[in-house]
Each structure stands twice: as structure tokens, then as C-alpha cells.
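Field reference: sequence -> structure
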Amino acid sequence: MSPFPDQGVGAQESPVRVRPGTRALFLHGSNYGTCRGLAAQLADEAAALGCATEVTPLDTYAGALPTDRPVIVVAASYNGQPTDDARNFVTALDEAPDGSLDGAVHAVLGVGDRNWAATYQHVPTRIDDRLAALGAERLCERAAADASGDLNAAVRTFTASLRAALLERYGDPDATDDGPAPTSAYEIREITGGPLGLAAERHGLAPLTVTEAYDLTAAGHPRAKRFVRLALPDGVTYRTGDHLTVLPAHETALVDRALRALGVAPDTVLDIRTGRPRRDALAVDRPLTVRELLTRHVELQHRPTAGQVAVLAAANPCPPEAAALAALPADDPRTFVELVEAHPALRGALSWGQLLDLLPPLRPRHYSVSSTPAVSPGHVDLMVSVLDAPAASGSGRYRGTGSTHMAALRPGDTVLGRIQPCRDVFRIRHDAPEPVVMIAAGTGLAPFRGAVAERLHHAAASAPALLYFGCDHPDRDFLHAGELRAADTAGALSLRPVFSGAPVDGHAFVQHRIAAEGDELWTLLDSGARVYVCGDGARMAPGVRAAFRDLHREHVPGADATAAEEWLAGLVAEGRYVEDVYGG
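Structure field:
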């Protein structure tokens, strides 16, 4: 009998690395960077196993998918269509002959949001099914990550499956230890830059200075909007319609609440290290105080997942409170801080390891740029809708992390940000030969303000441009009214405002005026007009889509609901009906 029971005759340790020379290809379909970041994160995991990795858009390999290495796809859908960097790839897949991918190996991680149920996971599912139909073998099963659910947990599960599959298929049987022993008794790190240096590096952010900031809405308006102008760093440029990605910070009042609820001292210094750099871990490269950690590095207002609630229940030393947490319904609306506050026995009960597992890294927020470089090349303007509403829990108020941070900015303040290019299909050419119909509500006006300013600057009026803009009242929140009216007077556009609090001709929302002016719009559509919709995706965008479907039924004899839906889907597929909307 072997003196080592766990290493008896025939026992074999599992490989911890892949065979030398193993490569892996990571392809992403990403409009705003989420899938690109996840693909890079997965590539980091594969590289740690010894893989030589490449991360690139799906379109890079349109019609030429390699069979000499595993291909991992991370993709999302946009209105049920491929993202801008995946369109050619998906088209090539659809046209590829049967058997053309025999010998290929693939895995797919789909990213989506269940709030868009009709198209949730549509493109990643389509890619996975088509790859298999063409002969590719699945390295592991497709995974679906839901941005409105526990996205991080889904990604972690897929990462573990991918890691296991890579080691099983490509593992080096001679690599079964944990690597060479340390050659020094010390671990030395050279640290440069400020406390947010690593976070800025991870997200590609640079300091931007606020040069102007003021209210866009009347004093006391319940849905306040702020104007913020920021100076771009030297050498940084942008295009009309682009976005600005900003890393926010929590307000002091919320951080103080979290400190009290958790029972931790704000000036305690933590030295947080990971075994190796991970894109889903905290971007911290130096000791920092607990206040700094909670202010600038972790989310505090997320709704805990079922797994996180289970951790809270297990850590709670009070049996009644632990039982209450264990019985918490899945739709409990309370944020992390609210939940900890409601169970005071958790105060001081959580270790730092548990807390860092429960608090996701602070994520950047995205804002549409409302200016144009044709007029303001060195600055970007933003319209920020300040979220300050009754909390979904029914207790107190909920103040949005990003918008509260942005609303507090004053001239001279600095924020970390970067330009994020918009989707090409959403760029509105100032010299477009076809009519343009822009439809917005609230701060959804932002990209259209830039497009109108560019159109006015170039005196481009060769084709009609209509702007439907919905707000509450002409004297309270008609954003940039003077500019828009001047552009209308100059002939750069035809302004079509709609006021829900002061309806004209019964038009309370943009879809009402669209319906009333259907004949004009149908004529424009018939001559090739492109429609752009920006703003609230929960109410406004569905209402506008319904108005356009009605428009089709009214102007096409015998058309029914199915025909109208197919017509609108055709416009979307052609890039003639484009949405840039947010859930709310």
C-alpha cells in the first residue's frame, strides 16, 4: 500500500497548465465595451493557464474562423441585431456552407438584459447554434449572463467551466504542480500614481477638468437636469454622437450610512492584494482607507443577489435575523446598504474577505455627449438627469450614484473619464442626403443637440431634419430651448416639442404628435428617411415603436399587426430605425 493514500498506484494529478504552444482566440461583439472587457478578462484567465491569446472583434474573423485553436465568443444583441463589430461575422456565418467548420472548437458567453425579453440573448444563441450546425464542436456549453441579474456570478461560472474545459482538452500532463517556489523572501511592488491609478488604467480613463456646470431645469423641478462641460486632455478628440465614460464616486452621506451599518472605522487602512491581476477584481494597487474604498472603489447601491443574501444570512449571528434573510423573497427591492441596515446584528459580523466578495467593483457610467467638435473641439458637454426619487424599498430616497456625483461637480473639479465612440449606425451625418427624424425625451436630447449644432455650423439643410422632443413644461425643462429654436429659425431643423404637463392639441408624449403627423412622416419614410430614437427605453421607446407600427397599418392597405412588425424590423435591419435607449 502506498504511504501516500492520495497518490496510490494509478493516481494522477490534474494538469494546472496547458501544453506549450496552445493558443486561444477570444472574439467579442460589443458596442459599449462590456463584452470586449469580458473577452479580455477571459483571455487573462486562459493566459494564466499558459495559453497564447488574441482578443479582437468578431468581424476580424468574418468568414475565416480558425480551426487550429479554440475560439471563445463573447457577444451581445442590440435590438435583436449583431453589434457593430459583429455584423459581418454573423452574415458570413449565415452564408457559410455546411461542414465548413469541421474541426473548429468554440464556446459562447452571451450577455444581455432580460428587460428586453423579445431579443434577450438572440445573437449569442444564433452564433452558438450556427457554429455547431457548421460542424464546430462546443468546448463547453453556452452561458447567458443577465445584466439585470447576477451577471458577475454567470461570468464566474462560465470562467470556471472554460478553465476546466481548456485543461481537460489541452492540459499538459507534466504540469501538475503550482509552479516554481519563490526565489525571494520578499514580495516587492513599485507603486506610482495616485490612489485611483490602477482603476484609471484598467478602464482607460484620464483626468478631465470641469469648466462649466449649471442647472438646465427650473428651480424645484422634480426631475432636475444639469449641464456639465469638461475640458478634454491634450490630443484627445471625439466625434459628434460619441459617449463619455466616467468613473463616479459615492456621496459622503451614503458612505457614512455604510460605515455605520457595517460597523467599520473609516480611517482603518487596508492593503488589498489579489493573487494575480484580474479584471473582475478590485483595481487597487496600494494601501487605502476604508472610507476611500467605499467612496471610490466598490458599489454600495446594488441589489444583492440570492447568493449574496445567503452569505449575509450565514454571517448573521442573530438566529431570527438570519432566518429572515434566508427567507427573503427574490424580488426584495432593498439595496445592499438598506439590507444591512435592516439587520443590525450584521454590524461588525462580516470579515473583509466577505465584504469584498459582496461589494462589486465600482463600474463606470456612460453619458451621451451633447456637443460637436465642429463647434467645441476641446470640450465635451453633457446633460445629466439627476436621479433622486423615493426608494423602491419604500423607505427614504434613492439617489443615483453616477448622476449624484456628476450633479455635484463644480468648475475646477476633476473627474476620470474617456471618450467612448458611439455605434456607427447612430451617427447622424450633417450632410445626409436623406431626411432625418430625431425623437427624444429628457436627456435623450443629448446626441441630437450635438447633431443639430453640427448641422447648423455647416449650414447643411439639403434634406429635412425633424426633432420631436418630449419634456414636462416649456418653462421648466425645455432643455436648451433657445438653441433649438434658433436652429429651427435658421432652417437647420424643424422643431416638434411635446409637453406632458402642458399638452398642445392633446399631444402629451412624442408618440402622440408622431401619430398626428403621420402623413408627413410616411412621405419622409417613403423617400428614405432615417429615424433615430434616444431616451427612456421602458416607456418612451416602446410607445414610439407602436406609433410607427400604427403608421404602417394606416398607410398600407390590408396590413395587419404582423406585417407592421415585419416592416419595422426591416427598417431596423437596414439601419433606418435606430435606438440608443436606456432602461428605467
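Note: Confidence is low (pLDDT under 50) at residues 1-11.
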